Amino acid sequence: MKSLGFVAAAMMAQLVTGCGGSGTPAPSAARPTPGPVTGAAEATPSVMPKEPEAGPPLPAIAYQARNRRDPFVPTVIEEGKGQTVNSAKLVGIVQGRQGPLALVEAADGLGYILKAGDVFANGRVTEIGTRAVSFAVAARAGEPSTTVTLRLATD
Fold first, then answer.
1. Under a CB-based contact definition with an 8 Å cutoff, are residues 67 and 104 in contact?
2. 119: domain CATH number?
3. Which residues span the domain enclosing 137?
4. pLDDT of 12-29, one tens digit each?
5. Is 36 inside any structural domain?
6. How many CA atoms are closer than 13 Å to the CA of 1, on its beta-carbon side?
7. Whole-structure pTM value
8. So what's the pLDDT on residue 108?
9. What is the DSSP string of the chain?
10. Is the CB of residue 90 less than 8 Å from the CB of residue 154?
């Protein structure tokens, strides 16, 4: 009986060590460590991806207005068309992401959305308040430059 107990104890010890109970990992559980390989026989050259070569240049794309305003051209109304800041009407003021915007209607009935610094007719927007917009009007020959303020109409 003593031999049977000894055999059972040996099998139990082998079972515990085979399951990784001894603290050492099993040979099949070993993982390779990332990084460069130091052995000369195991070294493989690192392959970098090939950079694509430059192809032919793309053709220039022309904007087709189709009765719309070109969004890449600054909003400028020529004074020669009868437009002046004095003939415009302030319709509204809205708050945009970058600051206040003025909604201005020109004498010909077209509406414009202006921000500070935009050129409109013969003036440049200098300030947009809560109820008014101010323009610095360019000086004509023999006249000083002036400031014109358009105010919202009160009902």
1. no
2. 2.30.30.830
3. 79-151
4. 667 666 555 455 555 555
5. no
6. 0
7. 0.48
8. 85
9. -HHHHHHHHHHHHHHHHHTTTTSSPPGGG--PPPS----TTT-----PPPPPPP-PPPPPPPP--SSS--TTS-----GGGT--STT-EEEEEEE-SSSEEEEEE-TTS-EEEE-TT-EETTEEEEEE-SSEEEEEEPP-TTS--EEEEEEPPP-
10. no
